[in-house]
Amino acid sequence: MPEIFVHKSGVMRHIIAAISKGYIYHTTGRVPFEKAERLFTKFEEKYSVNPDRVEAQKRKRHGEANARLFLYPGSDSLTYDFWFLLTEGEHPALSEEKLRRADHKRSRILFQDQYEAICLPAASSVPRWTWRLTQKQYRGYEEWIENTIRHAKDDSEAKAVIRSLQSLPGFRGIRQQVFALRKHFIREWGRIKGEEACPITDRMQGYLRYQSYKTVPIELVNARMAEGLKPISDAWRKTERKPKTKILAEEKEDDMSVSIAPPVKSENVTMKKVVFTSKSFAKLESYRAAFEEKHSTTITNEELIPLLVEFAFDKDPEFKKHLRQQGKG
To answer: Which of 76, 184, 228, 270 is the 20 to 30 A CA-CA neighbour of 142?
Structure first.
């Protein structure tokens, strides 16, 4: 049975990652929560959705497509939105489903009609997939800002707009839009309010960090929906502190900075922090399959970087040339 992400940024991150890996065909829809499990079973039996890494590689070698299925509670708390994604290759879904391409302007993947998946240029890098507000949603924020500044009796409504902007998911495309909306807010405030102090703060929207996202069984979510409760419990969203390796990673335009604690020791080097360029990070990712095959296991994203760094050093001494290390011991 499917697992449901407790944060919408979790399912959004995995959808965008799938598109980046070639899952370019898609169909989307909405299903009542009572039928969600049956829908998943149908797609699993008919299209072999969500194969493990070994099976996916096998299918790719044989010229067959791989399929992914994502589910997330709808905004009405009574339905699930679903996204069925497919790679290039032979697959029964090509003839049985009405599929569209995510890289076409008129058929972009949408998330709850608020965000769209789009490939945007990145500084000193090839274009990359990200999320951004739809044009309608972006214009709605502009109108909200303008109407609030014109008609609000005090700063409370203006501050509510600012909090809403800061709470948007921190994907690169959305961050760029939030920056533009902040400038629009300041410009409109100055035009309408003159020299009156602007309530907008210096606090900027945060980056969406690389991490493993918590999931819960769909049965638990369905039970809450059946009782008329909001699908995702606040208790599920609370982070449990565990004594494990911690990774703090921040995506930037052309590289990713990763802090590792406790440090990873390999070849007499204690690695406390590594900065990956896009080239070196792509190479690091290529070791995941080899590592899992060697150890007959799967690893989470939190475990991925320190384990693969150590494995990469053992497997490929030249890999050190692709890393800029900070902290030696």
So the answer is: 76
